[in-house]
Structures
1.
Amino acid sequence: ACSEFSQKSCDECLKNVSCLWCYTNNTCIDYPVRSILPPSSLCSLSNARWGVCWINFEALIIAIAVVAGLILVSVTVCCCYCCYCRRRSRSRLDEEEEQLARKREERRLQSLQRKHERKLKHDEIRKKYGLLQDSDNPYSRFENE
């Protein structure tokens, strides 16, 4: 029982985690587990000690709330940042893919154009030297003059 440690020391009282030390009357009492915070009729928060003797209960609650708030904010910021980066990287990948497809299509069209130009040039040379066959009679006889 925590009341056995009353009028002794705070350190001895707080060795048991279910005890609360009150500096106003140097008493060790059972922590009121039914309520989250001990009522002020039992002991004021600035004079109550729980867990450690060097920090009062009020400061302990504030410190825990600040740390929990910082963790919550940092997790929220990380989640938002990660979602934004994923969305941004997906759109960037889509843009790169579209750009590659456009370049591929441009190269294909240029290749077809060059192929057509080569065919026209070769046909002109064949025509010049009489090697171009008539499309009406592709099997005409080749005659030497």
2.
Amino acid sequence: MLSVQMYFIFCSFVVLSSFAQELRHKPVGTKPVRLFTDEDLAKYHGQEDGQPIYMAVKGVVFDVSSGKDFYGKDAPYNALVGKDSTRAVAKMSLEPDDLTFDTSGLTEEQMKSLEDIFINVYKAKYPIVGYTSRRILNEDGTPDKNFKPEDQPNFTIKDEF
């Protein structure tokens, strides 16, 4: 029987296999793409010394450990880590209701702010370690057959894998 993590790896392979031609050469030593469930991501909450600190924005999981003074234990932005905090980043908020991936109801200005921060802060500064499973899987864990990386905002296979 496959473990949950192996199932997610298998699902990511199925979804992304049609894009293999674009992945010409992967340097030796790079890690495979990882899919994070909400439970997986919650383990990287910045409260334990020596544990990586991860957060997601727009379904992209970043290792923000190098910014532990901002994201680590008792740090000002620790509320953002261990989850997909897309809405909070867009609104520049630390309110508990904003600590979610849900962008419904955001203004055009907030969406522009999200895009700017996503590109100029997170993508520019922190390594990508994976994606939230929500980005390419259905709620029941099956591959989303309608998911197409090329149709996703800021999902560039050559840049992100």
